[in-house]
Design goal:
The structure holds three protein chains of three kinds. By secondary structure, chain A is of the alpha+beta class. Chain A is built from twelve helices and 15 strands. In chain B, strands 1, 2, 3, 4, 5 and 6 form a six-stranded antiparallel β-sheet that branches. Classes of the chains: A alpha+beta, B alpha+beta, C alpha/beta.
C-alpha cells in the first residue's frame, strides 16, 4: 500500500520531521552543484535542476519542468553527516554533545546501499565506532527513486538500484505529468508510516500511480550507460594484481584523491594527536585517502610509493578485498569517482579492460 | 642457427673446448628483454640462466616501506643465475632490466642432464660458476664491511 | 545525544610504569601495572598512548611474575616511540588492548616448534616461547633461531643465556656484522635453519617475526626443508592507527592486520608476500 502526496504535502512532511526534532538534510543548489545541506522547506530543493555527468564532467542544467529530484548525485555523499570529514574524538576538557537526529531527504537507492556498507564497517565488527553510531542511530531516511539514469551511473550492474527496496523509512517516486506534480510514497518502517500519516491531506496512491512508479524504475534501469564486467569482480581483481593495465591507468592517474573524497563508502580516517598551549590533549580524526603517501607509511617510507600501487590499492579494495574484509563490495555504482576524476578515469572501463584480457573473466570483452 | 660464436665470445665461456660449446648450444636460445621488464622474479622457478651480451640488469629485492633495493648490477660479460645449479632451483632476487638486455638463455635442466652424462663438462661448468660465486661472495663481504662508513657502536 | 564515552574503541586507561629496562641502545622494555586484571595471548599487541604525542602499536613481550606486570618492548624509531623509551618509573602511559591474533601455541603441541626471530621480532615471540616452555613435555624439539644486525642489537641477552643453559632447548644466535669482541656466529638468520633440523615435515610448526625480507628468505629455507606452508606462521606489520578494524590503514591485501593478524599462516600470506607495494 502506497501513499500519495503533492508538493505542499512534501513541504508539510519536512515540517513534521523538523517538528519532531530532526535536522532535515536535503539537496540544495550551491557552488554550481547539487549538495546536501539543511533545508527548511521545499523551497530549498533544486526545483527544475538536473545534472549532466560524464567522465571528468559535471554541469548543472535547467530542466524543462520543475521536478524537485530531477538530478542524480552530486559531489557529496551522506557520509558528510554520518562520518564527517573531521571530528574531535576526545579532549581533556570534555567533548561537546552531538547535534540532534538527522532526517535525510532524497537518498538514492545506491546511497542507501552505501550507508549499509558503511554500517557494516563502523557498526558490524568487534569494535563499533560510536561517533558514527551516534549520528546513524535514529536517522530518518527518505529515499527517492531516480527518474532518469545519470551520465556515469552503473547501479544495475552493482545490484544497488535504481529502485530503493530496503533500508528506508519512506521512499518517494516523483511523478510529474498532466495529472499533476505528486509523489508516490512507500512505507519502509513503522515510524515512516506514522510520519506520512501525520502529513495533512495524504491519500492512498491509486494503482495507476503505483504502476507508473514501477515502470519508471524499469525504464531508468534500461538507461544505464555503463556496466561492470559480468565476471566475479573479487576473483577477477585478486587474480590480476600484476596486470599491465595498472601501468596504463597509472600513467593517467594524478593521485589527487578526488575519488576517495566523493565516494560514499570510502571510510579511511587518520587519528591526530595534538596538545593545546594550555596543556590539554586533543584527539581528532579526519578523512584520509589511500592515495596519500602517508597512508601506508612504514619503517621510514610508504609501502605503496608508486602512483600505480596506490591506484591499484583503491580499486582492488573497493571491488575485491573489501569483500574479504567486510563481506560486501565497497562499490555501489553511483559513478561519482568517474564524474569527479579530473582526467576521467572510469572504474568500469578499467575493470572491463582487465576482464577482457583475462582468462578468468566469465565472458571476455563485455560491453561497457 | 647456432649460437656457438656468441657463446664463444662471452667472457664466461672463454677457453671452453669447442665440443663443450656445441653441447651447451643445444640448450641455448637468444633472448631480448625490454627496459623496465623483469627477466625473473624472486621465488620463481629458475630453469634458465643468462649470459648477458648487452644492456644492464639490476638484481633487486623489495620490502615494505623502502622500495626495491638494487643489490648488484650486471652488464655485458656477466652471468645472471646460479640457482639452476642449486637444489631449490628458485630465483633469489628480482631481475629488472634497466637498459635493454640481449642475452643467451641456457636451459638449466637441459644443461644439468648433459652434465650428468658428461662429468667433465659438469666439472668445467662447476669450476666456472664456483669462481663467479666466490667473487660475488667476496664482493658482498666487502659491501657488508661498510668500509666507507663508521662501525656501529 | 551521546558524547564520546569511556567505552569507545579509542578509550585508553592510564597504566603506571613500574620498571624500565634498557635492552639495547634503542630498545626499552616497560613493565606496566594494569589497573585491573589483564590477560593476553602470545603474539598480541597493545596500543600505547601519550597524550598530545600520539599512539603506537607495541608488542606485548611477556609478564613479570609474581606482580603481574605486563611487559611491552619498544624500539625508538620516531616521536612517539622515543617518548615511550624515555619514560621513567612512576609515570603513566595510556594502554588499550590486547589486539590481534595469537601464535597458535596449543596447535603446535605434539610436534617440534621452531621459532625464527630477527631483530625487534623477538619481543612478540617471547611469550610464545615462554608458553611452550611452561608445558615443555607437550612438545618435541624446541628451537630458537635469532639474529640481529650487530651484537649490540641483541635483546633479552640474560634470558637467552638462561635458555642456552637448558638441555631441552636449542638456541642459535647470529649477527649480520660483528664487532671486534664478538666470538659468536656471524651470518644471516635463514642460514641457521639448516642447523635446526632435521624436520619432520608433518609435525613441525614455525613461528617467525622479523623484517619482511628476512621472513621471506627464512620461509623459503623452511619450505625447502619440508615444513608445510600451513604450519608456518608470520607476524605481519603495516601502518596501524585504530587497531579496531575501522580506519583502513593496516590493510595488506585482503587482511586487516589489526584484526586478521598480526599472526597469519604462510599458506594465506604466500601470494601477497611476493608482490611489491601491497
Amino acid at each position: 500500500m502506497s501513499y500519495l502526496i503533492d508538493v505542499s504535502g512534501l513541504d508539510a512532511l519536512i515540517g513534521v520531521l523538523s517538528g519532531q526534532g530532526f535536522r532535515v538534510i536535503g539537496p540544495v543548489v550551491r557552488d554550481d552543484a547539487i549538495c546536501y545541506d539543511e533545508i527548511g522547506s521545499v523551497a530549498d530543493l533544486p526545483a527544475g535542476w538536473t545534472d549532466e555527468q560524464e567522465a571528468g564532467v559535471y554541469r548543472l542544467r535547467r530542466r524543462d519542468d520543475l521536478a524537485l529530484f530531477g538530478y542524480n548525485v552530486g559531489p557529496q555523499a551522506w557520509k558528510k553527516f554520518l562520518f564527517p570529514a573531521s571530528a574531535t574524538l576526545w579532549r581533556t576538557e570534555g567533548t561537546e554533545p552531538e547535534a540532534g537526529p538527522f532526517a535525510f531527504l532524497g537518498v538514492r537507492s545506491c546511497e542507501l546501499r552505501a550507508i549499509a556498507v558503511q554500517d557494516r564497517v563502523f557498526l558490524g565488527g568487534a569494535h563499533q565506532d560510536q561517533w558514527y553510531a551516534a549520528r546513524r542511530d535514529g536517522a530518518f531516511l527518505i529515499a527517492v527513486n531516480c527518474g532518469q539514469a545519470g551520465g556515469t551511473c552503473f547501479c544495475v550492474s552493482m545490484s544497488s538500484g535504481p529502485r530503493a527496496t530496503e533500508g528506508f523509512d519512506l521512499s518517494l517516486t516523483e511523478l510529474l505529468d498532466e495529472t499533476g506534480h505528486r509523489f508516490v510514497v512507500e512505507v519502509g518502517s513503522g515510524r515512516g508510516a506514522d510520519v506520512i500519516r501525520a502529513v495533512p491531506g495524504w491519500r492512498l496512491a491509486p494503482t495507476s500511480d503505483e504502476e507508473l512508479s514501477i515502470t519508471l524504475s524499469e525504464r531508468v534501469a534500461g538507461q544505464m550507460g555503463r556496466a561492470m564486467p559480468s565476471a566475479d569482480l573479487r576473483d577477477l581483481l585478486l587474480d590480476n594484481f600484476e596486470h599491465p593495465r595498472w601501468d596504463d591507468v597509472a600513467a593517467r592517474c594524478l593521485s589527487c584523491g578526488n575519488c576517495t573524497m566523493v565516494c560514499p563508502t570510502c571510510f579511511c580516517f587518520s587519528v591526530e594527536d595534538t596538545s593545546t598551549l594550555s596543556g590539554d590533549a586533543v584527539r581528532e580524526r579526519s578523512w584520509d585517502s589511500c592515495f596519500t603517501l602517508d597512508h601506508s607509511y612504514l619503517h621510514g617510507g610508504p609501502v605503496r610509493a608508486s602512483g600505480k600501487a596506490r591506484y591499484r590499492q583503491w580499486m582492488t579494495h573497493k571491488l575485491a578485498t573489501w569483500v574479504d574484509q567486510f563481506g560486501t563490495s565497497g562499490c555501489i555504482g553511483c559513478g561519482r569517482c568517474i564524474t569527479w576524476c579530473p582526467v576521467g578515469i572510469d572504474i568500469t572501463e578499467e575493470a572491463n579492460a582487465i576482464a577482457g584480457e583475462s582468462a578468468i573473466a566469465g565472458e571476455a570483452g563485455n560491453d561497457a | 642457427m647456432t649460437l656457438e660464436p656468441l657463446l664463444r665470445g662471452h667472457r664466461f665461456f672463454a677457453g671452453l673446448a669447442p665440443e663443450y660449446l656445441a653441447l651447451i648450444n643445444g640448450c641455448a636460445r637468444n633472448t631480448v628483454f625490454d627496459e623496465g621488464t623483469f627477466m625473473f622474479r624472486e621465488g620463481e622457478q629458475a630453469d634458465e640462466f643468462y649470459l648477458i651480451r648487452d644492456g644492464r640488469l639490476a638484481l633487486e629485492i623489495h620490502g615494505p616501506g623502502r622500495g626495491p633495493v638494487v643489490v648488484q648490477t650486471l652488464r655485458a660479460g656477466d652471468v645472471a643465475g646460479f640457482s639452476w645449479l642449486i637444489d631449490t632451483h628458485r630465483w633469489q632476487f628480482d631481475g629488472r632490466v634497466i637498459e635493454p638486455v640481449r642475452a643467451i638463455g641456457v636451459d638449466g635442466r637441459c644443461l644439468r642432464d648433459k652434465c650428468e652424462q658428461d662429468p667433465k663438462l659438469g666439472f668445467e661448468l662447476m669450476r666456472r660458476f664456483a669462481g663467479l660465486a666466490v667473487d660475488r661472495l667476496q664482493a658482498t663481504r666487502l659491501q657488508l664491511l661498510d668500509v666507507y662508513g663508521h662501525a656501529h657502536g | 545525544m551521546r558524547t564520546a564515552e569511556a567505552a569507545s574503541w579509542i578509550a585508553t586507561a592510564p597504566w603506571r610504569v613500574e620498571r624500565v629496562r634498557r635492552e639495547s641502545h634503542d630498545v626499552v622494555t616497560l613493565a606496566l601495572v594494569p589497573p585491573e586484571p589483564f590477560t593476553f595471548e602470545p603474539g598480541q599487541f597493545s596500543m600505547l598512548y601519550l597524550a598530545g604525542v600520539g599512539e603506537v602499536p607495541i608488542s606485548i613481550s611477556g609478564t613479570s611474575e609474581p606482580d603481574g606486570l605486563v611487559l611491552h618492548t619498544i624500539r625508538d624509531v620516531g616521536a612517539v616511540t622515543h617518548a615511550l623509551c624515555t619514560l621513567i618509573p612512576g609515570q603513566h602511559v595510556g594502554v588499550r588492548g590486547p589486539y590481534g591474533t595469537a601464535w597458535p601455541v596449543a596447535a603446535a603441541r605434539g610436534g617440534d616448534l621452531v621459532v625464527v626471530a630477527g631483530g625487534i621480532g623477538l619481543p612478540p615471540l617471547r611469550p610464545a616461547i615462554r608458553a611452550a616452555l611452561a608445558e615443555r613435555d607437550k612438545f618435541g624439539h624446541i628451537v630458537l633461531l635469532y639474529g640481529a644486525r650487530t651484537p649490540a642489537d641483541l635483546l633479552f641477552t640474560d634470558e637467552l643465556t638462561a635458555w642456552r643453559g637448558r638441555f631441552d632447548l636449542t638456541v642459535e644466535v647470529t649477527v649480520d656484522a660483528a664487532d671486534s669482541q664478538w666470538r659468536g656466529n656471524v651470518g644471516v638468520v635463514p642460514d641457521l635453519i639448516a642447523r635446526a633440523g632435521p624436520f619432520d615435515p608433518g609435525l613441525t610448526t614455525v613461528f617467525t617475526v622479523g623484517p619482511e625480507i628476512m621472513m621471506r628468505f627464512a620461509v623459503r629455507a623452511l619450505l625447502g626443508s619440508g615444513v608445510a606452508p600451513e604450519r608456518i606462521y608470520l607476524s605481519m606489520e603495516r601502518n596501524m592507527q585504530c587497531a579496531a578494524a575501522l580506519c583502513g590503514h593496516c590493510q595488506f591485501g585482503p587482511f586487516l592486520i589489526c584484526r586478521d593478524g598480526p599472526v597469519l599462516s604462510y599458506q594465506r600470506l604466500a601470494r601477497w608476500l611476493g608482490m611489491r607495494e601491497v
